[in-house]
Amino acid sequence: MSTKDLSDAEARERLIDLAAEFYDQFAAGEIPRMELPTRTKSNIEYDPEKSVWVYGDRKSTRSANSVSGARKLLKAAYTIEFLANQLDEDRSSTLRELYYLSESWDNEEAQFNGQDESNNLVEDLEIITGVTREDFHMRPEESGATLMGPLKLREQTRRGEREIHCQLDVGEGGYQIPNNPDTIEFLDHDIDFVLCVETGGMRDRLIENGFDDEYNCLIVHLKGQPARATRRITKRLRDELDLPVVVFTDGDPWSYRIYGSVAYGSIKSAHLSEYLATPEAQYVGIRPQDIVDYDLPTDPLSDSDVNALESELEDPRFQTEFWEEQIELQLDIGKKAEQQALASRGLDFVTDTYLPERLETMGVL
């Protein structure tokens, strides 16, 4: 996969090389085709050595030997041309814009039937070329998550470089992570650990209570299921600055999957797991045991919650003694709790007691 050293010219060259392969196949009298890993759940494997999801050995071929296959290659060719021109002009666009832009293409057969189709094609091009969509200058629709803490960085912008301290030079909202975090250079820091937080309410509570100051903590707001940019910068903080990373979420199966995507990667982005996942990340809570120990306010598990928890018991990412105990306990008590449920013990409980005690037990403090 690409790195922050990959230039626009190199990314464009890889796209052009792919288009040239189609041309060479035509010239040789062959049916145009492109091969990529089969993108189905059955071809996703958990690599226990790397602790991430990866694609298996099965391959699929997109070939022009059928009308459907020919349409897919036609759409790929038009998209390659669009992305190559975008890089040449130093422009950018969103995934949503790509879908609508196809409506203006001169060949109706090249137009996308829906955004899922265009999104999947961009992912195909990532896999085949080894270039991330960020290096294609493709942006998601959602705004970036934020950082708050003792980190000084240098960011590349269209107006040149600028240096920012993620406490001193930002407001209460923090520093917004750009779409491509590889444009950031870490200059200096006083960070002892990175705390990834699921919800905005808890993120604001930690900052209002001065948790980032008192414990030299960099708070990363995940904004629910974290975007690729959030996972990428978290990995860089761990790998380049050798910082402990802990993940603080609600106590429900969907939040455990948020932790799983930070630590181990997701099935959807298996081709990027080594680029995005942080296997060293630890889970700090909310745990089912916390619901019992602190008598937290709860909601009952829904049928979908139960199904998700039972599925996680079969998920390689959660087949550890800790997770099996916690999930079995949650199924037994039939309850779930939010991060903000800790406020039932006072607004300062999370910063004065819960997190310090838990992080000390984990060896982070």
UniProtKB/TrEMBL annotation:
SUPFAM superfamilies in UniProt: DNA topoisomerase IV, alpha subunit
GO BP of this protein: DNA replication; DNA topological change
Catalytic class of the enzyme: isomerase
User: What is an example of a GO molecular function annotated in this UniProt entry?
Assistant: DNA topoisomerase type II (double strand cut, ATP-hydrolyzing) activity
* Segments forming domain Topoisomerase 6 subunit A/Spo11 TOPRIM: 193-359
- Which reaction is catalysed here? ATP-dependent breakage, passage and rejoining of double-stranded DNA
Residue positions annotated to bind Mg(2+) are 198, 250
Keyword vocabulary terms for this entry: ATP-binding, DNA-binding, Isomerase, Magnesium, Metal-binding, Nucleotide-binding, Topoisomerase
Q: Which cofactor names does the annotation list?
A: Mg(2+)
Q: Which Pfam families match?
A: TOP6A-Spo11_Toprim, Topo_VI_alpha, TP6A_N
Q: Domain named Type II DNA topoisomerase VI subunit A all-beta: which ranges?
A: 141-190
Ranges for domain Spo11/DNA topoisomerase VI subunit A N-terminal come to 71-137
Tell me its EC number(s), please: 5.6.2.2
Does this entry carry the keyword rRNA-binding?
no
Source taxon at top rank: Archaea
**InterPro entries found in the cross-reference section:** Spo11/TopoVI_A, Spo11/TopoVI_A_N, Spo11/TopoVI_A_sf, Topo_VI_alpha, TopoVI_A, TOPRIM_Topo6A/Spo11, WH-like_DNA-bd_sf
Provide the active-site residues from the annotation: 100
- Give the record's family classification: Belongs to the TOP6A family.
Q: What does this protein do?
A: Relaxes both positive and negative superturns and exhibits a strong decatenase activity.
Assembly with partners or alone: Homodimer. Heterotetramer of two Top6A and two Top6B chains.
Name used for this protein in its record: Type 2 DNA topoisomerase 6 subunit A
Taxon lineage: Archaea, Methanobacteriati, Methanobacteriota, Stenosarchaea group, Halobacteria
Q: Which gene encodes it?
A: top6A
